Amino acid sequence: MGEIQKKNHTEVTEFILLGFFVFPEVQLLLFLVFLIIYVMSLTGNLLIIITVCYNSHLHSPMFFFLTNLSFLEICYVTVTVPKLLAVLVAQNKTISFMQCMIQMYLFLVCTGVEFYLLTAMAYDRYVAICKPLHYTTIMNKKDCIILAIVSWMIGPLCVVPQVTLISQSSFCNSNKINHFFCDITALMTLSCSETSVIETIIYIEGLVLACTPFILTIISYVYIISAVLKLHSAKSRQKTFSTCSSHLTVVLLFYGTSIAVYLRPQSADSMDINKLLNVVYITAIPLFNPLIYSLRNKELKETLCKTIRRTIFSSRINEILHTAFVCNISTPPRYLMDSIVPYEPKHMLRLVTHADIYMKQLVEDVQS
């Protein structure tokens, strides 16, 4: 029997991702929807990273962890969505065995890292609200970096056992994965090997490595809510709690979908439900995170608006310089037509002067 299983395992060199095969008539529409979500997720999270990095007043522990989370969300969608887009538009829906294992591993790594990053962010909010006088001492740069490094190290290490076991399993039933990416629960339903060990590891890791940070997060928020309720004015309570409401929203969304997908009994019939939950897990959370944090954090929202205005302003400046020094200057630009000084192509100094005047006006517009 062992030789037969080994033979069948070696024969499976690739898998077929079925994706959303029950909706063949809307494949193109789904492709456009997921493409828009992917682009918006990348743009939103990249904008947060750039904004925090280039604005020194945002160099605080809260925004340090937020940039880590934004980078993680970019990894999330990049690991899964590009292959999903290919499955939706291509006739060839295959993925090699090695690519499948790598995709599954990277996805589980991202999941594990997010558990601990969200816990570190909860601890940061706890210290900021419950111990404000000691905040800079406790949440110093060194400790923040250590918390981030630990989070990024636990994820890759904790998923090695189940990925190793599933990669050594025999897939003699079928090579068609009823999913849009190589999800471990979908692969377990295809395996003709004994999967009880893998299921046990998943449940143990779920209880220890996932529930532990969740419990720590809940404890942090118990202290936070207790401290907020002790404030005398309603305005103070609202202002204080608003600093962590965005994080709490992300925590509930992430843990809710994680528990629904991985900590319940799996069967072939539950794969369709898992696919719907994973759509939220993989696309909605990376898309909503930038919106949630930017809309509910006044400081970040204002800085994002200024960054966007500066970007637009910079592009207009480049357009002016390009027109002034690169383009044909035999005809004056439209925005110089109202100038009192006569336009003469050979008098480049006058052209620069006019451009300077226009730039000054742009600066005043941006600042206003």
Automatic annotation (TrEMBL):
User: Per UniProt, what is the membrane topology?
Assistant: Multi-pass membrane protein
User: What are the recorded GO MF terms, alphabetically?
Assistant: G protein-coupled receptor activity; olfactory receptor activity
What the entry lists under Pfam families is as follows: 7tm_4
Domain G-protein coupled receptors family 1 profile, first and last residues per copy: 44-293
Spans through the membrane: 28-50, 62-82, 102-123, 144-166, 201-229, 241-263, 275-293
Determine if Cell membrane is one of this entry's keywords: yes
Q: Where in the cell is it found?
A: Cell membrane
Record's Gene Ontology CC terms?
plasma membrane
Q: Which domain of life is it from?
A: Eukaryota
What keyword terms does UniProt attach to this protein?
Answer: Cell membrane, G-protein coupled receptor, Membrane, Olfaction, Receptor, Sensory transduction, Transducer, Transmembrane, Transmembrane helix
Q: What is its main location?
A: membrane
Q: Which PROSITE patterns match?
A: G_PROTEIN_RECEP_F1_1, G_PROTEIN_RECEP_F1_2
| Annotated CDD domains | 7tmA_OR
Q: Please give the InterPro entries that the UniProt record associates with this protein.
A: GPCR_Rhodpsn (IPR000276), GPCR_Rhodpsn_7TM (IPR017452), Olfact_rcpt (IPR000725), Olfactory_GPCR (IPR050516)
The record's comment on protein family reads:
Belongs to the G-protein coupled receptor 1 family.
* Cited PANTHER family: OLFACTORY RECEPTOR
User: What is the name of this protein?
Assistant: Olfactory receptor
Name the source organism.
Geotrypetes seraphini (Gaboon caecilian)
